[in-house]
Write a structure and sequence with these properties.
92 residues, mainly alpha, two-stranded parallel sheet
């Protein structure tokens, strides 16, 4: 894979997403806290939405705090997010 291209914040988010193990999900808020930017859950969601590397950088593993799936910007949209999560045995 060629070098990741994005803003400093996006790259920070995307690098963290690569650490989320297969079969696990985190909320946008949990990701924000993990990258030491606890008030930036919405910005994390925006970084996920702008992720051109999906599913290699697994933004599908990030969901809303209320348990909702949020969106998926990769090819196939939300249906693809559901399919990817189910293939990783995530209960949704």
């Amino acid at each position: 894979m060629k070098p990741i291209s994005g803003t400093k914040f996006q790259i920070k988010v995307w690098k963290y997403l690569k650490k989320i193990p297969k079969g696990e999900v985190k909320t946008y808020k949990q990701v924000a806290i993990a990258i030491k930017s606890p008030k930036s859950a919405r910005a994390v969601a925006n970084a996920c939405a702008k992720n051109p590397y999906a599913p290699k950088i697994p933004c599908h593993r990030v969901i809303r705090s209320d348990g909702g799936l949020g969106g998926y910007s990769g090819r196939g949209g939300i249906r693809k997010k559901i399919k990817l999560l189910r293939s990783e045995k995530v209960a949704i």
